[in-house]
Amino acid sequence: MYLSLLFALLLSTAQAATAPQYWIHMAPQRNAGLLVWQDTKQWVSEWISDGSASATWRDPNTGTPGSVEHYSLREGAMMLDGFDQWPIACLRADLVDINSGETVSLTCDKGHPYAPFLIPRDPWRMRIWGVIANSVRFYWEGDFYPDSVTDPCYFSGPITRDVIREQEVWWDSNGVWVRGTGTPAFDAQGKPISPSVTKQSETLVAKGEGVIGLKDLVSGRQSCLYSRWQW
Which of 1, 25, 167, 206 has the largest count of CB atoms under 10 Å? Predict the structure, then answer.
């Protein structure tokens, strides 16, 4: 009950934008980080924040730019407003207390909530149904678990940090599931329905560091933050 009331308050009340603790790499400052596989030390991914609360993911082996995620800090939360040049419209959003199963509906307004400024210590699930560029329907579900982990290949030596474990899955009407599998998230008339999903990917977001690891939940293979810098 406490978790749902907390989120309902945070996501329905306008607040002054302040930098979230755990999502500091996407706050308005110029940061970047390079992730490598723990077993081979080969580059796997790179994130770059350009100082405008947007983040670009790219392949560091080729330098090929990936998708750009546009965020804003408002309404007590980090809000995801669009991908590349396409805006997001939220159709339905809710929050689930993973321990109790209690669900609370969230108000949709333009983009969609991604993470609150105030991070609770209880695990929760965010579920979003929406549309990209007024044409492509999508469904995103993320589970968030507070934890403390050690990154063994951090560039200045092993570090232990408070983290949020984010396990997520994505579907869009192009017909593909990403980072997992699931049943339909929309009915035949295009209305949002609750799918059953299996998540296959995990991201570790550390307090004061940003993303420090990616993990394949099927194979167990994982990466870690090899370097991080400001520019």
Answer: 206
Q: Locate tokens 């040049």: which residue?
A: 85
Q: What is the pLDDT of residues 190-219, one digit of tens each?
A: 999 999 999 999 988 877 777 888 899 999
Contact 140, 83 (CB under 8 A): no
147, containing H or E segment: strand 136-151
Residue 184: both structure tokens together: 């339909």
153 half-sphere exposure, CB direction, 13 A CA radius: 17
CA distance 48 to 181: 28
Please compute Rg for the chain using Cα positions.
17
* 11-64 confidence digits (pLDDT tens): 444 343 344 444 444 455 677 888 899 888 899 888 887 766 677 888 888 877
DSSP secondary structure, 171-229, as one string: EETTTEEESEEES-SB-TTS-B----EEE-EEEEEETTTEEEEEEETTT--BEEEEEEE
**How many domains, the chain?**
1
Nearest 5 degrees, angle CA 196-CA 186-CA 56?
A: 80
Structural domain boundaries, residue 217: 2-230
> Look-up: residue for tokens 């099927």?
218
Residues 6+ away with beta carbon under 8 Å from 31: 24, 25, 48, 49, 210, 228, 229, 230, 231
pTM for this structure?
0.82
